[in-house]
């Protein structure tokens, strides 16, 4: 457009100057420019009539897996001398190989194929526009249109392998599973002793105790193992997002939630998810691979947000979680959150808190400033005190420093549930 304007002004100036001075040489200089403008006007491109078809080799992939995108553009209109075709790649996606734009000539009926592969971080992406800019060979006239070829791509969060996580909710379901049910019967761990009943296996008889009672026999009981309800709560409040050197603490929380959902569902438990932040995103409890897909889809679209209502955990809708079930909170955990956790514990919920350590994470971006070091020491002491208070009321805490393996952090902190915690659980049951 600037070239056309400059050329038009130049022709106009030469003609006016030539007429004003009655100089034919100056007027003659403008003739080639006028011919140039006339030719450009004659060959100016018409409105492009293009048809676009977009295909993706997959509409959902795991994080880090490349996706191939093909865009076929067919010219159903007149010949285009020069056209620029550009597929708009959403922010957050990186083009790995191939081309997403091309400058070429398109005859009527010709098709151009753009094919490239992208890779990106967790999230939901919408491919929508293809920009088309047609021009003449002289570059004086341009026509621009935007073509729509929508397509969705979901990149699911990374799920890492995780060993079985020991939980002990106060209530279980009547199906066999990995969770100790606090009910005697067939199992692995010793539960107690009862009077012998007809049909009990001989190998269960407690001969030492029976020898003390000549007129009675006693049988060992083992703790039954069943499935349970597990509610995952992902803390997506804006205060829980810490960024250091381009890394996000919230992304580690999403990764942990996805891994926990996977291991609990693989054990046969019924798992639900609540994303608690700028809004509530609730995935109703369910079983199996379909529930795993629902949870991963919800985690793919999870983003930290701010809300005046959900700024505190006290507004967690407990009606979403069955009574006396297991709740797993994934949160950095703040001092004002502790009273809410105490109330949840008092209502009979068994609590496990996966707390990604914000102090150690933020310390990575600090230098050797003495004041910063002192502030970090104070922050670590405050966090240690907070975690100690949570332990004292029977809440399991995993203090996860995100630079170490999540599986190692969980099983270093939990392993098998200690006997004192079982005693606390049995006392609450009564």
In short:
The protein is of the alpha/beta class and 430 residues long.
Give me the secondary-structure topology:
Layout: H1 2-21, H2 24-42, E1 50-56, E2 60-62, E3 67-75, E4 80-87, E5 93-98, E6 101-106, E7 111-120, E8 123-135, E9 142-156, E10 176-195, H3 207-211, E11 218-226, E12 229-235, E13 243-244, E14 247-248, H4 249-266, E15 270-276, E16 280-286, H5 288-300, E17 326-330, H6 338-346, E18 350-356, H7 358-363, H8 370-392, E19 396-400, H9 406-413, H10 419-429
Helix pairs in contact: 1-2, 4-5
What this model shows, in words?
- This protein is about 30% helix and about 35% strand.
- The protein is built from 10 helices and 19 strands.
- The protein has helices spanning about 1-20, 25-40, 205-210, 250-265, 290-300, 340-345, 360-365, 370-390, 405-415, 420-430; strands at about 50-55, 60, 65-75, 80-85, 95-100, 100-105, 110-120, 125-135, 140-155, 175-195, 220-225, 230-235, 245, 245-250, 270-275, 280-285, 325-330, 350-355, 395-400.
- A hairpin with a 2-residue loop joins β13 and β14 (about 245-250).
- The chain is elongated, with a radius of gyration of 34 Å.
- The model is unreliable at about 415-430 (pLDDT under 50).
